[in-house]
Amino acid sequence: MPEISPRPIRFVHRGHAIALEGVPPTRTLLDWLREDARPRCTGTKEGCNEGDCGACTVLVAERDDTAPGGVAIRHVNACLSFLPTLDGRAVITVEDLPQPHPVQQALVECHGSQCGFCTPGFVMTMTALREAHAAAGTRPERPAIADALAGNLCRCTGYRPIVDAAERMFELPDAPIDRAALRAQLDALAADTSEMTLEDFAAQRLARPEARIVAGATDVALWVNKQFRDIGEPLWITRVPALRRIATDADGTLHIGAAASLEDAWAALAARWPALTEVWRRFASPPVRHAGTLGGNIANGSPIGDGAPVLIALDARIVLRRGPDTRTLALEDFYLDYMKNALAPGEFVERLVVPPSPEGTQLRAWKISKRFDSDISTVLMAAALRLDADGRIAAARLVFGGMAAITKRAAQTEAALRGRRWDEATLQAAQVALAQDFLPLSDLRASASYRLAVSANLLRRLWLETRPDDPLPASATQVREFRA
Amino acid sequence: MSTTVIGTSRPHESAQLHVTGRAPYIDDLPEVAGTLHGALGLSPVAHGRLVALDLDRVRAMPGVVAVLSAADIPGVNDCGPIVHDDPILAEGTVNWRGQPMFLVVARTRGEARRAAALAAQVATIEPLQAVLDPLEAHRLQQYVVPPMHLQRGDAAAAIAAAPHRLEGRFSLGGQEQFYLEGQIAYALPQENDGLLVHSSTQHPTEMQHVVAHALGLAAHQVQVQCRRMGGGFGGKESQSALFAACAALAAHRLQCPVKLRPDRDDDFLITGRRHGFEFRYTVGHDEAGRLLGAEVEMVSNAGASADLSAPVMTRALCHFDNAYWLPAVDLRGYCARTNTQSNTAFRGFGGPQGALAVEVILDEVARRLGLDALAVRRANFYGTEDRNITPYGQTVEDNILAPLVDELAARGRHDARRAEIAAFNATSPVLKKGLALTPVKFGISFNVAHFNQAGALVHVYTDGSVLVNHGGTEMGQGLNTKVAQVVAHELGLPLERVRVSATDTHKVANTSATAASTGTDLNGKAAQDAARQIRDRLAAFVAARWQVAPEAVQFAGGQVTAGTQALAFTELVAQAYAARIQLWSDGFYATPGLHWDRERLQGKPFFYFAYGAALSEVIVDTLTGEWRLLRADVLHDVGASLNPALDIGQVEGAFVQGMGWLTTEELRWQPMDGSRAAGLLLTHAPSTYKIPTANDIPLEPGALDVRLFGHRNPADSIHRSKAVGEPPLLLPFSVFLAIRDAVSAAGGHRVDPPLRAPATGEAILDALAAVQRG
């Protein structure tokens, strides 16, 4: 059995400060709500217990002076939320919404529920969307609504009435979450915070090199929920405010702390490189992006993680820390072999450093998966390409996920491009070289031959969009960019 | 006076409860003190002889109270709905990877799951040859039921005499129901060895029978209740039985309440789904594309046992005609036994599989002749006066296909868009568009005549409020809302005065499954019958007082009137009670005129047909196989709708669900390659099995345009409405065939795209490669 958490976990639920003692560190918020809370809060449902269906979506609020009312409110999957990650925060479930609530009223009016099982999860996602837009005085377009709903599955309605309801809810009288009251409750909790300094965390890591570092637990929770793995008493990296920061140097270099959320990290990356917006939209789902971290995605090192290929294409560095000492590696050198990385005992990922791209760099990142939303990549290609004045390829970084045991640059393909005129002949040579670079696997997502074929075709798409003569716009090469 | 509630768009009766999280599903019910939790130990191999189970190791796990296996079942170890080849817990052999071998009962669900996870370590199994591929099973003539044959005329001679002949194969995958609420049962011991079982099931009576047989009890000792399901889609018609039986077994044995809720992954590994089909066909046709003869072999992947595979195949054979007159057919159906989960009911029940085959064939016929596919479809439509008898001998009496398709084609500018798309494709090097319009004709009724019956109870209380109970189950489709509308209409009451309570085998006995789209047709009529009896008694009572004919008494707007005399319904009820008038009644309905010869596959299996058509436009990326649905126009026939909002919800939901089946929802098993995962269903959770999301529908306002075809049902159905659950599942054939059209465009329409279903990106790229090779 997992070890018992040594310190009470304190969070706000139903307006009360809860202090839980003796709870296993991997007890999930979902199980706590449904089994332990009194009265049981059964409005939050379990559909999959792996963060893919959204039936357990709840809101988590935390102190944030930059957010409206000093409270940031985000939706997460309760099935992936270990209780210790809620320390110092507030949980808002469907039972907490003021009545009548415009989200609920809109769903009834638009016939947005059939079996109703997924509905509370949709209600919470839509409440988060409404809160975000109400604060900004904006309303989302239908594609933005669908993006927001990417983590909520409905098997009955076909979604149209739910999207309609997400528009309709803005026309109904508001019933906002009382942020002032929440802030006061959160402030009261903050008096006894579990937050720690970077130095303290580094010391703990040094003292417990075997301990599992956990951030949002969006992967680790599956080991527990599905495989019953005992992960002991983890080190909770999101408790280090210094590591949640994202900062920019004067020269534009971006520093993404290891505990910054995926959503914040991708927002920062896409603000700098708009070509990354599509990968951001399709990276997991909003609730997973709110809980998970880019540092976790990188440290986890899965060959089908979408963070690494993009960051390697951007020539990112990774800063590793051991006690007081840090060292910096090129991210591509961090990965040694399947699920093996360069971390030494007692060391941890402190931050990612993304330099500005050289002038004239064209960046592309394309994800291929069975479904657009919330799916694992079959192949992800990230490419950074720079042409000289003669239309020759001055620099090329081509990075692939899903094609090898680790995220890997296509070295021979890059070599076939470098210094060449960017024309059909060069493209074909690069496509031939690509088959030398990779020997992908066949698995449940796709066959090896599809992975190779689609990768070669993504090279062609790259050429079509970036060739010096008659480049095609994305609307002519990508179905998601096409507008009728 | 308010007008009737029939035909109005009322919200789902539980909508307010759904959105506030206050609609209880079984796992939300207050737990009785002492409740224990179950988990199933699953077979780690696809096929083997079960030599021994070291259950003491499992019993030693923390929190475990009991571990039960087949030997602990006092009655019959079977939960098969027709053929009795479905052990509740494995006995002698294990036949698929994921088959339950034992049941752990523990203090908490987590403890039960952890103990059950030892299954692979405690089972001694001698491996046997496993077959995962239905075509391999077909070669071995390994079937769950005898082959079936539906024949009319001499198909071989018709094909030989036809001007053109076409041969081909088509591979169609299965589909997971993915009800959001997984399987669950909660069993509570009752007095005198009885049991109350809360079961998430479409078929409470079947659950009652299975539990009674397994425990050696009489049916009257077992009470099964279901207030609502978080989705069913056929997956809880027969296959809720294993869970109900296991929970009941443990509760009976331990005399404690026991809840069994498998984890989603286990639900995928234990239960079956829509049958995948493999088709081989030869057809003969004329210059206009009219089919003159068809020989078709259908091999379904039945999985490890019969379950409902035989009636699913029957419906597939009876829907190969879809909308078309087929003068000579020779259709053979084989239900292949494989070592995979036993496949079962799923919305459409074989109908979609059979009908898609003929649509693929007509698509190819049109391409070979260089004709417009819609023109070829129209040329083959059933007639209204002649050419109107189905291969199974039923006359198509109410054919509205031609006007329905004409209306949709005009609304969707079919011909103009075909030209626009050709022009787009001519200048677009990477992205290609495709368009397809496909019709639906779907037979309504259970193919087994005696299932077409239903019962209901209507109680009018002395305060004038009404409680309805019927044999159907609510899985989100809005059945209870429609039945309440029917009863409110009969008694002239506002809908709010009528409540429908949980389905309960102690109230209405011997019910049929809520399946085959028949829920409202059957239970609505039964409830109407009950309400009418009460109304007639009240009318006779008040007519005597008022000195009028009973027929002159009207019930509307909460008032009872005759000429100038009027009385509030509530008041009348109070007076009638005092006069000792029976204020409650049962009701019964049996669909008239059905007969079916199961051996010859001939008769009149269907009360009527439901029709529809859809026009879909897609865009396909020829480099990656990615695609998007740009626009879909749907016109669907629900007769005179009882509730247009609910009906549109069913049509749209089915459209998107069927689109998922044919595109992203791919099932993959690890081949029998000697690896540790051999025989494992690899796509056993939503992380790997991808149903549509909100981003997979056309989002522009009006781009998913679903409308109802206003046409009263000529058959005497409930208020002349038509069933709506399953027929629209066939509408997204248009999406699949539009993708096929776009792929075909990439090859200049010279070659038939060998596109399999589901049309994943990989399947599309494979088909593109074939058409580009030429």
TrEMBL record, chain A:
Keyword Metal-binding: yes
Database matches in InterPro entries: 2Fe-2S-bd, 2Fe-2S-bd_dom_sf, 2Fe-2S_ferredoxin-like_sf, 2Fe-2S_ferredoxin-type, 2Fe2S_fd_BS, Ald_Oxase/xanthine_DH-like, Beta-grasp_dom_sf, CO_DH_flav_C
Location of the 2Fe-2S ferredoxin-type domain: 7-97
Domain FAD-binding PCMH-type: 169-359
PROSITE patterns: 2FE2S_FER_1 (PS00197), 2FE2S_FER_2 (PS51085), FAD_PCMH (PS51387)
Keyword Metal-binding belongs to the record: yes
UniProt superkingdom: Bacteria
Keywords: FAD, Flavoprotein, Iron, Metal-binding, Oxidoreductase
Pfam families given in the database record: CO_deh_flav_C, FAD_binding_5, Fer2, Fer2_2
CDD domains documented for this protein: fer2
EC numbers on record: 1.17.1.4
GO molecular function: 2 iron, 2 sulfur cluster binding; FAD binding; iron ion binding; xanthine dehydrogenase activity
UniProt-recorded name of the protein: Xanthine dehydrogenase small subunit
Gene expressing this chain: xdhA
Automatic annotation (TrEMBL), chain B:
Entry keywords, A to Z: 2Fe-2S, Iron, Iron-sulfur, Metal-binding, Molybdenum, Oxidoreductase
Assigned protein family: Belongs to the xanthine dehydrogenase family.
EC number: 1.17.1.4
A Pfam family hit: MoCoBD_2
UniProt KW Cell membrane keyword: no
Domain Aldehyde oxidase/xanthine dehydrogenase a/b hammerhead residues, every copy: 20-129
Gene Ontology MF, one: iron ion binding
Organism: Sphaerotilus sulfidivorans
Protein name, per record: Xanthine dehydrogenase large subunit
SUPFAM superfamilies: CO dehydrogenase molybdoprotein N-domain-like, Molybdenum cofactor-binding domain
UniProt keyword annotation of Iron present: yes
Cofactors, names only: FAD; Mo-molybdopterin cytosine dinucleotide; [2Fe-2S] cluster; Mo-molybdopterin
SMART domains registered for this protein in UniProt: Ald_Xan_dh_C (SM01008)
